[in-house]
Design a protein that fits this description.
about 725 residues; alpha+beta; Calcium-transporting ATPase, cytoplasmic transduction domain A; Rossmann fold; Calcium-transporting ATPase, cytoplasmic domain N; seven-stranded mixed β-sheet; elongated
Length: about 725
């Protein structure tokens, strides 16, 4: 038997995750946590029934006792498994009747039915058939109760069930004891089915990456394990295949279905030089891809790791529920003792009646439904987010997102595309020394064609933008000769026998070539935050302007839509940017958002701290670069764009793999939907408990109803949490 760790075992405070099969409810979590917390060199322990994992942390400088941990988990009746076995179990569907709990239900049900048949056929047998049915179904329950007791945890549902069933036999209520044991087995089986369904949904992420890849070496293609791929190698991906790695397209062009990774519904056209992700689907062209990340560091692996760590990080509301359950269960046991002893002493009530009521109260005492209500919903919310390109690093982050009242957004690469695009093209006619604008399309196309010729081969962002714009127009490709850079001014060269320059307005103004009208026009464009390049033709000793091109880093297509979605959610959006104030103000006005520019990284963090000092709710910060890292760390919730730097992604609490501004509102809406689900679950669990505690104490309901109330509530809240897996973002 082996274990799997997220981080290699070492003498440090780094957490280690163990895969455990058989944990299906909140009671299971509490048993495991209580037992492992007693071990030496275990400082923190967190079990997740939904994720099927246990996360442990050793004190600094100490090592976790791995062998002792494994034996403790095994002694409790659970199984420690390796990664491959866990993935297989989580992603394959086993019919309920083939599981150990399913088989126990079938045996207990058959014995109970037989007992009722014998009662009517041979009444002289008395209660012995029911005693036999009770004992057979109770044996595994008693075994698990004993295992937990050895680990120092007496308050388990198995212990309470054992006492209740044996007590019922002792007061000659064998038929009811048999029914109680059977219903308990049914409830456990249903809990297992619900938990397995949740695990399959989460573990399905690991199936996105294919197991094999077509490796290209020395002109030949051969199949290898995808996990063996290393950066620098090249792979071939055929139409219809999933990409086995993160990489860069070397040759080929194709539509890529990225929905498995980021939830984007429309396939994206990808070509040479562009990056692609593992787990996405190549739709219609053969691609040759250079591997850029090893299997353990590709996008899918990073998503899985983040989700695993997120599931282990309990939300504040979950920690509160755990503390509540810790005191609640012993308190109810104490009440049950009082119900058993006090009534016969102060009233004519028979001891058998008071003991019966006390036993029923014990069955109500288990807080399974209450304990599982929160982590089940949190895990479902995290899973839905991950499948839609919204990564949140823990339940605490998911809970906090829904409370945001203000979000600060970076400009470049967050609200804007992060690269300039051509926004205006203008052509000039010179008549009598006065320059006038020419809006004839042929004249405009000529400006684009000549400017693109001068910018050929340049890697400057403005040059790339002009070249891209030229290619979009589908114009004939011109040829430049004697192309050269003009230091601090622009570029120059010969195009089709014409001597041309593409320079900044400053260089033109120094030559006094522009009329007053054109100077005003350039000033107006620059006031909008645009960069302007003027095309000049040199004829002998004379130079005359032919036209201009204006460029700006424009807002993302969904920027306004994303900001409007935030406004509908009651969240104020503010732009904080290091760009010049004029450009920031222009973009802010275009998007209808409060904006502040010329901020250093520490200035952005300071703004966040100032808002926090003012109160009014937690602050979110969205960014994509190293300069955003201080503010991302200062905010209650830092959100990184998926295209951002590794520093931003590591510093942030959440990430938007879609690179869409609308993802911010989607995260907040998902958080609020998850917390509504949690509140509903807690209300259901406490409501059932309160109702049946009172009715049982008054003698209105009996033991079998108590069992149905307990297990039924557990299954109900789990299924309600799983309902989140069908959450849709259409209405955000």
């Amino acid at each position: 038997m082996t274990h799997t760790t997220v981080n290699p075992p070492q003498a440090s405070a780094e957490p280690t995750t163990w895969r455990v099969q058989g944990m299906d409810c909140g009671g299971c979590e509490r048993k495991v946590e209580a037992a492992l917390a007693r071990l030496k060199h275990v400082e923190q322990v967190s079990a997740s029934a939904v994720a099927g994992s246990v996360r442990l942390t050793a004190p600094p400088g100490k090592a976790l006792p791995h062998a002792e941990i494994e034996s403790t988990i095994t002694a409790l009746g659970y199984q420690v498994v390796d990664e491959a076995a866990d993935t297989s179990e989580a992603t394959t569907h086993t019919p309920w009747w083939e599981t150990p709990k399913g088989r126990l239900v079938l045996v207990s049900g058959a014995l109970l039915a037989l007992a009722w048949a014998l009662k009517f056929a041979w009444p002289s047998l008395g209660t012995w058939p029911f005693v036999a049915a009770t004992v057979v179904g109770l044996v595994p329950i008693i075994q698990r109760a004993g295992q937990a007791l050895k680990m120092g945890n007496p308050f388990t549902i198995e212990m309470l069930m054992s006492i209740a069933a044996l007590g019922a036999l002792g007061i000659n209520a064998a038929a009811e004891a048999a029914v109680v044991v059977f219903l308990f087995a049914v409830g456990e089986m249903l809990e297992g089915v619900a938990a397995a369904q949740a695990r399959r949904s989460i573990a399905a992420l690991s199936k996105l990456t294919p197991s094999t890849a077509r490796l290209m070496e020395q002109g030949e293609v051969r199949e290898v394990a995808a996990a063996s791929l290393e950066p620098g190698q090249r792979v071939q991906v055929r139409p219809g295949d999933r990409l086995p790695c993160d990489g860069q397209i070397i040759t080929g062009r194709s539509s890529i279905d990225e929905s498995p990774v980021n939830g984007e519904s429309v396939p994206r056209e990808r070509g040479e030089g562009e990056g692609v992700f593992a787990g996405t689907v190549n739709l219609d062209g053969v691609l040759e891809i250079k591997v850029t990340q090893s299997a353990e560091n590709n996008t899918i692996a990073r998503v899985i790791k983040l989700v695993e760590e997120a599931q282990a990080a309990k939300a504040p509301v979950a920690r509160f529920i755990d503390r509540f359950a810790f005191y609640y269960m012993p308190a109810v046991v104490g009440v049950a003792l009082l119900v058993a002893i006090v009534p016969p002493l102060v009233s004519p009530m028979l001891w058998s009646e008071s003991i019966y009521r006390a036993l029923a109260l014990l069955l109500i005492a288990c807080p399974c439904a209450l304990v599982i209500s929160t982590p089940a919903a949190i895990a479902a919310g995290l899973s839905v987010g991950a499948r839609n390109g919204l990564l949140m690093k823990g339940g605490a982050v998911l809970e906090q997102l829904g409370k945001l009242k203000r979000v600060a957004l970076d400009k470049t690469g967050t609200l804007t595309a992060g690269m300039p695009t051509v926004t205006d093209v203008e052509s000039f006619d010179t008549d009598g020394g006065v320059d006038t604008r020419n809006v004839d399309k042929n004249s405009l196309d000529e400006i684009v064609r000549l400017a693109a010729a001068l910018e050929q081969g340049s890697s400057h962002p403005l040059a790339v933008a002009i070249s891209d714009y030229f290619q979009q127009q589908g114009l004939p490709t011109p040829v430049v000769q004697e192309g050269r850079a003009l230091a601090g001014q622009g570029v120059a060269g010969q195009v089709e026998g014409r001597s041309l320059k593409l320079v900044s307005p400053r260089a033109v103004q120094s030559l006094a070539l522009l009329s007053g009208d054109l100077k005003a026009r350039i000033a107006a464009l620059e006031a909008q935050g645009k960069s302007v390049a003027v095309l000049i033709e040199v004829e002998s000793e004379n130079e005359r302007p032919l036209g201009l091109m204006a460029l700006r880093d424009e807002p993302r297509e969904d920027a306004r839509q994303g900001l409007e979605a935030l406004e509908r959610l009651g969240v104020q959006a503010v732009m904080l940017s290091g760009d010049n104030a004029r450009t920031v103000a222009a973009i802010g006005e275009q998007l209808g958002i409060e904006a502040e520019g010329e901020l250093m990284p520490e200035d952005k963090a300071q703004r966040v701290r100032e808002w926090q000092a003012q109160g009014g709710g937690p602050i979110g910060k969205v960014g994509d670069g190293i300069n955003d890292a201080p503010a991302l760390a200062a905010a209650e919730v830092g959100i990184a764009m998926g295209s951002g730097t590794d520093v931003a992604l590591e510093t942030a609490d959440a990430a938007l793999l879609k690179n869409r501004v609308t993802g911010i509102a989607e995260m907040i809406a998902l958080s609020r939907a998850t917390m509504r689900n949690v509140k509903t679950n807690v209300a259901l669990a406490l409501g059932f408990k309160a109702l049946f505690l009172v009715s049982t104490a008054l003698g209105i309901t009996g033991m079998w109803v108590a069992v149905m109330a307990d297990t039924g509530a557990t299954v109900l809240v789990t299924l309600n949490a799983l309902h989140l897996l069908r959450y849709r973002f259409n209405d955000v």
